[in-house]
Design goal:
The protein is 67% helix and 0% strand. The protein is mainly alpha-helical. It folds into 2 domains: 39 residues, no CATH class; 80 residues. Helix 3 packs antiparallel against helix 4. It is elongated, with a radius of gyration of 28 Å. It starts with 17 loop residues before the first helix and ends with a helix.
Length: 136
């Protein structure tokens, strides 16, 4: 038979100064806990507390990657619009329309894709240098 879990029915009431409350909230927000009571219970019972850490040096990289994602979305949207325009042409799209589409792709999209590839290559090189430095 499975053991039944006891309900938490006992209360502990404490009073804090405003500065103590701020400190408690500040520390709680740095953890993985979803509610303050869970955090306080863990501290009181002497269990380990997991604290979130954040590598702020990666903020710039993450910002750049978000910009690259937006740029890729814009490229995809432009391509979809061009193909939609060709497909909506009266009758069957002829070879001239496809040729124009390919020229648009080569003129506008390929440089953006190459720029994105270069940026990703630069960041991968930076990351590999950072990993080598951490291992040393």
């Amino acid at each position: 038979m499975a053991a039944t879990e006891e309900n938490r029915s006992k209360w502990i009431k404490i009073r804090l100064k405003p500065t103590e409350q701020e400190l408690l909230d500040k520390r709680y927000k740095k953890t993985t806990f979803h509610c303050l009571s869970e955090y306080a219970r863990t501290l009181l019972l002497g269990k380990p507390v997991t604290i979130l850490t954040r590598d702020k040096s990666m903020d710039e990289v993450l910002e750049e990657l978000m910009l690259l994602r937006r740029e890729l979305n814009a490229v995809g949207n432009n391509l979809n619009q061009a193909v939609k325009n060709i497909n909506s042409a009266h009758g069957n799209p002829d070879d001239r329309l496809w040729e124009v589409l390919l020229q648009v792709i080569n003129a506008n999209i390929n440089p953006k894709i190459n720029e994105i590839k270069e940026r990703i290559a630069n960041y991968s090189q930076i990351w590999s240098q950072k990993l080598k430095a951490e291992k040393a």
